[in-house]
Specification:
The protein is an alpha/beta fold. The protein folds into 3 domains: 269 residues, HUPs (Rossmann fold, 3-Layer(aba) Sandwich), CATH 3.40.50; 153 residues, Isoleucyl-tRNA Synthetase, Domain 1 (Orthogonal Bundle), CATH 1.10.730; 48 residues, no CATH class. Helix content is 46%, strand content 15%. It is built from 16 helices and 17 strands. Strands 4-3-9-10 form a 4-stranded parallel beta sheet, sandwiched between helices. The radius of gyration is 27 Å and the shape is globular. It starts with 9 loop residues before the first strand and ends with a strand. 40% of the residues are buried. It binds zinc ion (ZN).
């Protein structure tokens, strides 16, 4: 944990709205819970950004020497269409549409989710529990909440009594919402008539006739409310109070606010010490969502097969693009930004390749007149940026300073000692592959190599045509390449080409 001593790890706690030093309950152990997906549809890129944020947190905590138990759930029951307390279950609805069993839907989209996580090099959690495997524990928690007087039973359903809870505890402390404002904003929805207050939320719902997913309970056949599973699974595996709970910003209310209320009402303890929320991915300023028609899937992104995409991008380009923005800021998606990220990533990877072969003797230019470079300060600045609330954009900017030094050393303008080169090599390897979780992409490398090879073939044909004085053909090749965005120039040193 040496790296953390100068600048201890700080993170922004949504609960206190402040950047705080991170002090785990039982170091070196850290408990981390992140709300996982509801497995009823393909994952889109906005979801990927959220899981990437907590992948960076998981990686950095481990890099600092902590032993992290990372729990990320799978929601496979109880999340209703529209996030309300009434209506159809998202999974049951999809099962009906695809004419499959609900558990076939769950398996299908869980497999798809895992594939996407692997594609973007997002590490699997330590435990990945499902809501349907924790029905007994959920019933137990409801019983404790009822026993403590914070829930009531109506027609086989159980509701959390928000006004009663808010009278004694700080309901709204996480989201900053006041119950008066919430009351003013509530609209009459189906099932509301059973609730004593429109603020109340379902802990257990009676299964109506034809409802596909239901379990026996002390209140009859039914299914759990959406917020309950996370309270149950986080505390079951991480303890009644644990270190960090994360999720997308859209989960702050009601989902996470309800999680706090459930734990306090059932067990008298606030469950989480640090709440962290990742920001949204937007496209041209609008939230990325299936319903907006701008929520493309990772497959579409890689193939470029979507009306908003000029071409395809590799998974690591996308990962790097997202990490060039701080997790708490909104990130706007554009082709120009992705292409800039692609270039930036290639520069970093190219510098790392040079670094592998660099020695204090390369090149054997005279040592006087060379600029020096402070490698130790660079390494400290990288660690300090990550310790400052996972500031990946600042850390990446520091790595580009390192690229300048590496290229300068190769060109003979900057002098690096062997020790400095070794430090740089370790730093680049740690930051690129461990902290940022990037990986060298065979696909992009081959593509690049293939591009260069194809260009050699084409330019060879063009040179042949020129030699035969077949200028029609040589001009045709040049013009067709120009139409593809590739400029060919005849220079004194020979023929060069570049993408515009
Ligand atoms: Zn959750």
């Amino acid at each position: 944990m040496a790296a953390s001593q100068d600048h201890p790890f700080h993170l922004t706690n949504t609960l206190s709205r402040k950047k705080e030093p991170f002090i785990p309950l039982n170091p070196p152990h850290v408990g981390l819970y992140v709300c996982g997906p509801t497995v009823y549809s393909d994952v889109h890129l906005g979801n990927v950004r959220s899981f990437l944020t907590f992948d960076i947190l998981f990686r950095w905590l481990r890099y600092l020497g902590y032993s992290v138990r990372y729990v990320r759930n799978i929601t496979d029951v109880g999340h209703l269409v529209g996030d309300e307390d009434a209506g159809e279950d998202k999974i049951a609805k999809r099962a009906r549409l695809e004419q499959l069993e609900p558990m076939e839907i769950v398996q299908k989209y869980t497999n798809g989710f895992h594939e996407v996580m692997r594609l973007f090099n997002i590490l699997p959690p330590s435990i990945e529990p499902t809501a349907t495997a924790h029905i007994i524990e959920q019933i137990g928690m409801i019983e404790r909440i009822i026993a403590n007087g914070y829930a009531y039973v109506v027609n086989g359903s159980v509701y959390f009594d928000v006004p009663k809870y808010a009278g004694k505890h700080a309901y709204g402390e996480l989201s900053g919402r006041k119950t008066e404002d919430q009351l003013a904003n509530t609209r009459g929805t189906e099932g509301q008539d059973e609730k004593r207050s429109p603020l109340d939320f379902a802990l257990w719902k009676q299964a109506e006739k034809g409802h596909l997913m239901h379990w026996p309970s002390p209140w009859g056949e039914g299914f759990p409310g959406w917020h309950l599973e996370c309270s149950v699974m986080s505390t079951k595996y991480l303890g009644q109070t644990f270190d960090i709970h994360g999720g997308g910003m859209d989960l702050k209310f009601p989902h996470h606010e309800c999680e706090i209320a459930q734990s306090v009402a059932a067990d008298g303890t606030a469950p989480v010490r640090y709440w962290m929320h990742g920001n949204m991915l937007t496209v041209n300023g609008r939230k990325m969502a299936k319903s907006e028609g701008n929520g493309f899937t990772p497959e579409e992104l890689i193939s470029g097969n979507h009306k908003l995409l000029e071409r395809g991008y590799s998974p690591m380009t996308v990962r790097f693009f997202m990490l060039q923005c701080h997790y708490a800021s909104t990130l706007d998606f554009s082709n120009a930004a992705l292409q800039a990220a692609e270039k930036g990533l290639q520069r970093l990877m190219a510098a790392y390749e040079i670094l592998k072969g660099l020695t204090a003797k390369t090149p054997s230019a005279p040592s006087d007149g060379k600029e020096s470079f402070d490698v130790e300060t660079l390494a400290k600045a990288c660690h300090a940026a990550m310790n400052d609330d996972l500031n990946t954009p600042v850390m990446i900017a520091q790595l580009f300073e390192g690229v300048r030094a590496i290229n300068g050393a190769k060109a003979g303008n900057i002098a690096l000692t062997q020790e400095q080169i070794d430090i740089l090599r370790g730093l680049f390897s740690d930051m690129l592959f461990i902290a940022l979780g990037l990986k060298e992409e065979a696909a992009t490398k081959n593509e690049e190599g293939l591009d260069a090879g194809l260009m050699d073939v084409l330019l060879g044909l063009r040179a042949d045509a020129k030699n035969r004085k077949d200028f029609a053909t040589s001009d045709l090749i040049r013009d067709k390449l120009a139409a593809l965005g590739i400029t060919v120039k005849d220079t004194k040193e020979g023929v060069v080409w570049e993408r515009s």
